[in-house]
Design a protein that fits this description.
Blueprint: E1 8-14, E2 41-45, E3 58-61, E4 64-67, H1 74-89, E5 94-97, E6 106-107, E7 115-116, H2 131-155, E8 164-167, E9 177-180, E10 183-186, H3 194-197, E11 201-204, H4 224-232, H5 246-249, E12 260-264, E13 274-278, E14 282-285, E15 290-292, H6 309-320
Parallel strand pairs: 1-2, 1-5
Antiparallel strand pairs: 2-3, 3-4, 6-7, 8-11, 9-10, 12-13, 13-14, 14-15
Length: 333
């Protein structure tokens, strides 16, 4: 979409949309290559090769794969690649996508526990194995990388005409505990609760997006393409289920969603899918459990009784419009 609209395009970070060399034979090389998806330049971990993503990373840059020295931190490579593109493209319209490797485990099959949060270049102890402390250091380093990108727009004098969107794709692992004020938040990755499915979304564009504005609209990932299209005056993809939330970034009412739908089934051979519809306050699962998540974020008390029938019917009607448990959304040759 953005390439077709005349934008320079680049991507850095993690790919994981192609069967790499450590996948089963029937899936190796199957999927999408970055150069076939509209990106003119790329700097990516795990295109068709495995290997580390952090220290001594294996990275594919514009089709050429290399392993860096052990003292090189992958996120610095990904970030610098995008900063270089900003220098190169500063006088043209550009679209950069940064699916971060941070914050995530590193997988090391030589260790007893192969999945570990690891220290960063800013960590006081490069040999630290405390998972809670390393997680915090990774979050801090992620923040510093975002700062580098924001500062680059200021340095180049393009901050006021550059929209930066920052979000997460899921919550963190259940072994990690975070704190907000006096509340302890336990990670919920892989679960349908807010600890996994409700993530931060931050928009930054000085002079366009007010710094103190909070938007309560429910948003899902299908909304990003139409939002970016409207923000840039680009022809949107069609057809699409997404809705632009760009008017809300400007402080206008816009056309917000009444609800969002989530379907989750990572292991269909071992488990049934989870399906639910939710709005800002209420959440209805495919098994008819209803929760007032605004007041019961851990979903401990299903809501029943006549008083909830109105919202139950409303959400059930939305759920009935979405794919059922066994329904395929794609056609295969």
């Amino acid at each position: 979409m953005m390439k077709d609209a005349g934008y320079r395009t680049a991507i850095a970070g993690k790919w994981q949309l192609l069967g790499t060399d450590h996948y089963p034979e029937q899936t190796r090389g199957k999927g999408s290559w970055p150069q076939d998806t509209g990106f003119q330049r790329h700097c990516l971990w795990q295109v068709d090769k495995g290997g580390p993503r952090f220290w001594g990373p294996v990275i594919t840059i514009d089709g050429k794969t290399q392993q860096f020295e052990k003292d090189v931190f992958g996120p610095d490579i990904y970030c610098q690649f995008l900063l270089d593109r900003m220098d190169e493209y500063q006088d043209e319209p550009f679209f950069l996508y940064y699916p971060m490797a941070l914050v995530h485990w590193e997988h090391d099959s030589t260790k007893q526990d192969p999945n570990q949060f690891i220290p960063t270049p800013h960590s006081a102890d490069r040999n630290n194995t405390n998972q809670q402390e390393n997680f915090a250091d990774m979050v801090s380093y992620m923040d510093s990388i975002i700062g580098r990108i924001v500062n680059k727009t200021v340095e180049l004098g393009i901050a006021e005409r550059t929209l930066i969107l920052v979000t997460g794709d899921n919550g963190t692992y259940r072994s990690i505990k975070s704190r907000i004020g006096d509340k302890v938040i336990v990670g919920g990755k892989g679960r349908p609760t807010d600890a996994d499915t409700h993530v931060a979304l931050i928009a930054y564009q000085p002079g366009t997006v007010a710094a103190d504005r909070v938007c309560k609209s429910v948003v899902d990932f299908s909304d990003f393409a139409p939002t970016i299209a409207e923000a840039t005056g680009t022809e949107p993809l069609s057809p699409t289920d997404g809705r632009s939330f760009f008017p809300q970034l400007l402080g206008r009412k816009g056309n917000p969603r009444e609800n969002i739908f989530i379907y989750y089934c990572p292991n269909p051979e071992r488990s049934k899918p989870l399906r639910f519809v939710r709005n800002e306050r209420w959440k209805l699962y495919g098994n008819s459990r209803l929760f007032d998540v605004a007041n019961d974020v851990l979903e401990k008390k299903p809501v029943t009784g006549p008083a909830s029938e109105g919202i139950r019917k409303q959400l059930q009607a939305a759920l009935d419009q979405m794919p059922s448990e066994g329904q395929s959304l794609m056609k295969f040759d």
